[in-house]
Amino acid sequence: RRRRKVLEKLKEAVDERKKLIATLRGKPWPMRKKLESQVFVEKYEGALGKGRGRRLYAYKVMMRKVRALAYFYAFFILCLKYSGHFGSSVASYFLFLRWMYGINMILFSLTFGLVMVPEALMARPYGSIPRKTVPREEQANAMDFAVLWDFGGYAKYSVLFYGYYNNQRAIGWLKFRMPLSYFLVGVGTVAYSYMVVIRTMARNAKEDGGGDDTSFNFSWKIFTSWDYLIGNTETADNKFASITTSFKEAIVEEQESRKDDNIHLTRFLRVLANFLVLCCLAGSGYLIYFVVRRSQKFALEGLDNYGWWERNEVNMVMSLLGMFCPMLFDVISTLENYHPRIALQWQLGRIFALFLGNLYTFIIALMDQINLKRAEEEKVKFNMTIWQANLYNGTLPENSTAIPIMVDPADVPRGPCWETMVGQEFVRLIISDTMTTYITLLIGDFLRAVLVRFLNHCWCWDLEYGFPSYSEFDVSGNVLGLIFNQGMIWMGAFYAPCLPALNLLRLHVSMYLQCWAVMCCNVPQERVFKASGSNNFYMAMLLVILFLSTLPAIYTIVSIPPSFDCGPFSGKSRMFDVIQETLETDFPAWFGKVFSYASNPGLVLPFLLLMVLAIYYLHSTSKTYKHANLELKKKLQALREKTVLSSDTARNKMSLQTPREKETELNAELCVIQCNTITIRYNTINKISAAYNSMLI
Amino acid sequence: MGATASKLPKDQLSEYQVTNLTGYIYLIELFSRAHKRFNELLEREDRQQIGGSRVPMNKILTLPELKSNPFRRRICQVFSTSDLRDGSLSFEDFLDLLSAFSDSATLEIKSHYAFRIFDFDDDGTLDTGDLEKLVNCLTGEMDNTRLTSEEMKQLINNILEESDIDKDGTVNLSEFQHVISRSPDFVSSFKIVL
After folding, report:
1. A224 touches chain B (CB under 8 A)
2. Residue of chain B with shortest Cα separation from A688
3. What CA–CA distance (Å, rounded) separates A639 from A641?
4. Residue A633 near residue B181, CB atoms below 8 Å
5. What pLDDT, on the 0 to 100 scale, is given for residue A686?
6. What distance in Å separates the CA atoms of residue A649 and residue B125, rounded to the nearest whole number?
7. B185 CB near a chain A CB, below 8 Å?
8. Which chain B residue's Cα is nearest to A639?
9. Which of A172, A248, A500, A549 has CB 3.0 to 4.6 Å from A490, enough for a Cys bridge?
10. Are the C-beta atoms of residues A105 and A500 closer than 8 Å to each other?
11. Which residues pair with B171 in a beta bridge?
12. Number of H helices and number of E strands within chain B?
């Protein structure tokens, strides 16, 4: 009976400890105390016969291991550590890059696994049908590096582009529905991207919660302004300077009311600045249009007469505009005299408008080219009938779909495949954009740093502090560049399935290159301002870009008929007819009937109306909830202040002590865990860590 | 004691799961890095006995993560459990430091340690002297970046007006935590990655 009493007492002690452990996470105790509690529970839990918890624990640990591996943690920590030296804004750029990489990985696996691989493995091989063969005229230089770099020749007639795919409904022994898969993957990539962006926005919005408070301005400045990730003396000095300036500014603002003298001059200057920016935007849009027209003229006259610049004029002009116009906007914005955060938002807005304008001008020019190609296609179709007639020497068979005479696929006259042309244009644009970025990085950052460092000894003025000095790492510019590149990928991925793979490679190289550039050649920014308090600013931009870049693709899918002799949809009148076809042939009859009822406008319009009403209702309820939230917050704050007032400092000290007192009581009942045990454990951990170290190296 | 030494490494490391570090490999990697860095700071003869030896404060301050931090001395003093109160850290204290500054430490832990770091005279409250030293730390050591005495007085008045709820002229832990809990930047800036 005595034994039972002891066991009961022990059980109580263990339960007490367990309760303690549940709250241990939130307690600012030194590690030793926490260790002792945990060790106590595990030691005596075994005695009480409860070993199952441990197995579950080991399983949880294993799962975390798998998850940790999947996050490329080693590289991520490296990047974080390096970029952390410059403060948390640069670190946030690399986090954003890593997140983009994750999205592109999924897009790549979808396009690679469900589109490229089945066509490469199960469909007819290269050379078997006309669309899969390089035409006779081009075969002479199809393997040239210049042609391949331009994505012509063998690169054009491969799984990388739309034109290679056959329109056979089911291929291989799996009866894989290739055209359906192509269409669904195209739709699926867009849907997945929407889902991920919106989910991330929702998560960020949840974490935010009430950051729009200004009641503790000074206290926050003094308690939270230091960034503990800074590990670099220069950044620290800059941070000191910016903190001092912000203190002084805040004090001055608090002391006297701002007298807005010369408000008319400021307003006039701002209007002038906006006018200049609009001129800039219009000018760049016109330049792109002009250049694209010129390239069409070149194409009509045959590209062989012209050198490298004429061939790549459009892409180079777009990239150069993207590089120089933001600098121009920066100079113009000095006229405006805004608060730095607001000036940054204006700058970002203008760069956004510039990129958007350029992209859409490019697309309009592309549409012109598509129309040209379609007119050419009509001519080719006409010539095709004449050519077939010649084949049969005048005897035209009634059913002209099959050619009984064996003709080499390379000799069949080919239609101009506008879809492949679109895909090629996007791929070329991305490549030239990437090259421009890397070359700017190498010249603008690396070469500049080298020059400043080595020429400083023999130059009249101090190169490091005056012009040109080292370049800063422009976080917002780089994030915008990343967002727009992703927009181009979304636009072109339907016509060039190789684009996600290309982007993945590009992001990988970018990560390492920019990490190196940040560490080696950049100095931290002088005034670090975030464009907004939350990450949702860039997410919202990404969402807008996603929407705007899927519009052209959707337009071309819905309104332009596919080419007659290339791609998985050839022969159909519209690309989405593949859905209709699948419903008719692969599903039972009643399914098709239900679908046709559902797509009746008489049903769709009321449904849309219902959705609009639902959105309005949800919006108004969310407004009410936000209002109620604010009221509750105010009440909570008043309550907290009352609690703080009513509790003494002495009582606070007491509440920290009580668990300690309880603990010493428990300690007195157990075997005291000596320091030696911990030392022994540390030694084993030493060995493990050394082993893992050697493994990782 | 013999039984504990022969346990599998996985079980031992799982104990440390309690202290806010997540991810098995992240855990081991963090350990090996912390262990390596701590090792480098120890004298050669102490390296075998890592459990008991302490690294003096001037060596801790050479770590690049702490080198440019204006509060580095206070951080060492707060996390040190040495009886001599000389700011020296044992390996356990070092892990405590990393744990408090890690990503997964809660707001309560961070604000508790922040309060202790800012409390220069260790009296449990932030009074005018503490706040003055705090502002001087933040504005850097150069003379041209310091605030004048009027500006300092004005600043401290403003701070006490905002945070001192019971109007006793000092900021105690509850008031400090009340202010910090509303701040959006605190958790993300109060972070050290090794």
Report:
1. yes
2. B9
3. 5
4. no
5. 59
6. 9
7. yes
8. B178
9. A549
10. no
11. B126
12. 12, 2
Residues recorded for chain B: 194
Q: Chain A contacts of B184, Cβ < 8 Å?
A: 208, 211, 533
- How far does chain B reach from its first CA to its final CA, in angstroms? 32
Please name which of A307, A329, A304 lies closest in space to residue A316, comparing C-alpha atoms: A307
pLDDT in tens, A137-193: 888 877 888 788 888 888 888 889 998 888 888 888 888 889 999 999 999 999 999
Q: Are B52 and B43 in contact (CB under 8 A)?
A: no
pTM of the predicted structure, to 2 decimals: 0.67
- Report chain A residues whose CB lies below 8 A from the CB of B120: none
- d(CA A619, nearest CA chain B) in Å: 26
Q: How far apart are CA A359 and CA A487, in angstroms?
A: 10
pLDDT given at position A504: 94
What are the DSSP E strand ranges found in A413-508?
471-472
> Element (H or E) spanning B90, and its range?
strand B89-90
Q: Return the number of other C-beta atoms located less than 10 Å from residue A251's C-beta.
A: 17
- Residue A522 pairs in a beta bridge with A471
Model ipTM? 0.81
C-alpha B164/C-alpha B175 separation (Å) is: 7
Q: Which residue from A61, A217, A244 is facing B139, i.e. has the nearest CB?
A: A244
Contact B109, B170 (CB under 8 A): no
Q: Is the pLDDT of residue A48 over 50?
A: no
The count of other CB atoms within 10 Å of the CB of residue A220 is: 22
Estimate to the nearest angstrom the gap between the alpha carbon of A467 and the chain centroid: 34
Q: How far apart (Å, rounded) are the C-alpha atoms in residues A359 and A318?
A: 9
Q: State the Cα–Cα distance between residues A481 and A486, nearest whole angstrom.
A: 9
Q: Taking a contact as any Cβ pair under 8 Å apart, which residues of chain B between 10 and 29 contact chain A?
A: 10-20, 22-26, 28-29
Closest CB to A28 among B26, B113, B190: B113
Which chain A residues are Cβ-neighbours of B70 within 8 angstroms?
A: 226, 236, 240
Name which of A550, A482, A475 is nearest A101 in CA terms. A482
The Cα angle at residue A623 between residues A622 and A625, in degrees rounded to 5: 60
Nearest CA in chain A to B148: A248
Q: Residue by residue, what is the 3-state secondary structure of A42-110?
A: HHHHHHCCCCHHHHHHHHHHHHHHHHHHHCCHHHHHHHHHHHHCCCHHHHHHHHHHHHHHHHHHHHHHH
Q: Do A30 and B96 touch (CB under 8 A)?
A: yes
CB contact under 8 A, B165 and A57: no
Number of residues in chain A: 697
DSSP three-state, residue A355:
helix
Beta bridge partners of B126: B171
- Give residues 57 to 86 of B whose Cβ lies within 8 Å of A: 64-65, 67-71, 81
Cβ contacts of A372 within 8 Å, gap of 6 or more: A296
Give the H/E segment covering residue B54.
Answer: strand B54-55
What percent of chain A has a predicted confidence (pLDDT) above 70? 73
A80 to chain B, any CB pair closer than 8 A? The answer is: yes
Mean pLDDT of A286-293: 85
The Cβ of residue B151 has, within 10 Å, a number of other Cβ atoms equal to 17
In the stretch 110-129 of chain B, residues with CB closer than 8 A to chain A read: 112-114, 118, 124-125
User: Which residues neighbour A250 within 8 Å (Cβ) at sequence distance 6 or greater?
Assistant: A217, A218, A221
For residue A228, give the nearest of B139, B184, B189 by CB distance: B189
Give backbone dihedrals phi and psi of B100, rounded to 5 degrees, phi first: -65, -30
Q: Which residue, among A25, A54, A222, would best test binding to B if mutated, counting the most B CBs under 10 Å from its CB?
A: A222
Which residue out of A18, A21, A31 would a mutagenesis test of the B interface target, given it has the greatest number of B Cβ atoms within 10 Å?
A31
Cα(A122)–Cα(A111) distance, rounded to whole angstroms?
Answer: 16
